[in-house]
Amino acid sequence: MTLQEIRYFCVTAEVLHYTKAANLLYISQPSLSYALAKLEKELGMPLFEKRGKQVSLTKYGEAFLPYAKRALSELSDGIDRINSLNRPETGIVSLGYINSISSTVLPEFVNKFYAEQDSQQIAFRFRQGMAGELIEQLLNGDLDLLIAGVTGKPDIASIDYLPIYSQDLFLVVPEKHPLAKRLSVDLSDLAGENFISIRHESVIYHQLESQFKKADVAPHTVYEADEYSSIAASVATGAGVAIMPRLPVLSSFNIRLIPFKDASMKQVVCIMRSKTQEMTESIKSVWKFAESLSSLME
Question: How is residue 267 annotated by DSSP?
Answer without folding.
Answer: E
